[in-house]
Amino acid sequence: MGLGAVGLMLLGIDWMTRGLKTAAGPSFMQLLQRWAGTPLQGIFIGSISTLAVQSSAAITVTIVGFANANILSLSSAAFVIYGSNLGSSLSAWLVAVVGGSFKMDGLALPILGMAVILKMLSKQSRSKGIGEALTGVALLFLGLSYLKTSFDAVFINVDFAYLTSLGVSGMLLSLLAGIALTVVMQSSLAVVALVVTAVSTGSVPLEIGAAVVIGSNVGTTSTALLATLSATATAKRVASLHVLFNVLTAIVAMLMLKPLLWGIQGIALFVFHDTQPQFILALFHTAFNALGVVLMYPLTPPLIRWLETRFKSPSYQAPFVLDQSSLAIPSLALKTMSMEGMRAGQLIARQALMMAQQRKLDGQLLEDNKQILQNLHLYIAKLAQQGMSAKEAGLLNQLAQNQLRLSMALQQLPGLARHINQDPTAFELEIPYWQALSDAPLPPDPVALRNAYRQFVHDRQKKKQLIVQDVLYERKGQESGGDDLLRLAETRRFNQQMTKALLAFIKLQASFDKQAKQAKATAPDRVDETDPETETQVE
């Protein structure tokens, strides 16, 4: 029964988290951008977000992704994570209150019935998400009910108080048990629920339960660390701050364990007139996380300055922003992919410029660019396996199409390099356009990009007419003129694919920025299958 109860709890937490994330959608990203500007706002929004989603691990991984995508600064991300830890401690109150005041299986079944009906009959993704979240809540309550019954039946004769008699060794063993359980379950809420239930039934002494809860706080860092194994320097800095916060908080809480419990028992008796162990443990969990926030508040600026000197990117290229942390929310992953797509397009333009100026193709740079596009392709494939709305699936399809356009452009570079071997001045016409793309900020200005492309098309048309006239008046041979026209056609295809892809990525970025600012301005110009050159000629 106990094993099945833990399974129900883990399943319920998983459903609850996924459902709430689906219900929140892109608005969660906008909320973070809008309310994480100051340290106090970051702590507040981190606490509220974790309470809403009931998963500090999910919020932490999401915040790592946001910092990775430059949606949040390192300082803002740090304080949101501190707030997330505080919010996770408030979840213990849910277990303590519901477990102590209600018959949970009687409460769970009506919730489950209503939730399944809502999920099955709703057509909107947000309503379905709410239904899935409520299903998770019901399963969590059922699991807690069975868990309490199993503790009463199985552990009544187990002497966990023996750990208390071991002194410091017993406390450290309990701490390690909390870390191990959280790493295995990948849910601090499940571990806290387990401990609070055990303490409420009298199976586990309060001090041992408190040490396990401290360990569960440290164990939550495993999720963030796993998410940053192949991440950028920024993501690793955020994860490091998370680890430092939890480890420092755990050290202080262990050193002050008995005084904290004694003080909290006095506060509970004075304020709540209640000294039930589950409430004491919930208050202890909140108190030592709040103490951690107070300790880390003044230490964060110097820590950030120190971390800025660590995890430097080994490559000359800008940090690669796609990693597992960005998959937490599809809208975030789409935004990071559009950013990486723009960077990949700019790097291709930069390589073309270097080829024209240095009169040779850099083979290593070509391989690096191929790897960037391959990573983008693999990331698109991973995101395609995630649950997402129809709108997000449409945007993902557009991203895949434009990633292929960049791949087509990159594949044309070796062919273009042949012309530079035959004629060192072969790309004098293209150099100004490639230079404009290489020097443009990210994201590039779409108006400036279109104007630069139109100027290139205008110059290309004039060059084409000159070649025809040179052949006509025999200033150039037919074969030589044919080679020149072939080169113009090849560079036209190269620039066309690269420009279409960049404009599409810019459009997607602009739509995210517009949502974040809640502006009602007209959407950017539509990028479709028409040839940018044809549009210019029509104009």
Automatic annotation (TrEMBL):
Q: For this UniProt record, give its keywords in alphabetical order, as a comma-separated list.
A: Cell membrane, Membrane, Transmembrane, Transmembrane helix
State the residue spans of region: Disordered. 517-539
Matches recorded under Pfam families: Na_Pi_cotrans
GO terms under cellular component: plasma membrane
UniProt xrefs under InterPro entries = Na/Pi_transpt (IPR003841)
One GO BP annotation of this record: sodium-dependent phosphate transport
Tagged with keyword Transmembrane: yes
As for membrane topology, the entry says: Multi-pass membrane protein
Q: What residue stretch is flagged as signal peptide?
A: none
One term of GO molecular function = sodium:phosphate symporter activity
Give compartment(s).
Cell membrane
Compositionally biased residues, Acidic residues? 530-539
Q: Where are the transmembrane segments?
A: 106-122, 129-148, 160-181, 188-206, 243-273, 279-300
Annotated PANTHER family: SODIUM-DEPENDENT PHOSPHATE TRANSPORT PROTEIN 2B, SOLUTE CARRIER FAMILY 34 SODIUM PHOSPHATE , MEMBER 2-RELATED
Stated name of the protein: Phosphate:Na+ symporter
Give the source species: Methylobacillus rhizosphaerae
Q: State the organism's lineage.
A: Bacteria, Pseudomonadati, Pseudomonadota, Betaproteobacteria, Nitrosomonadales
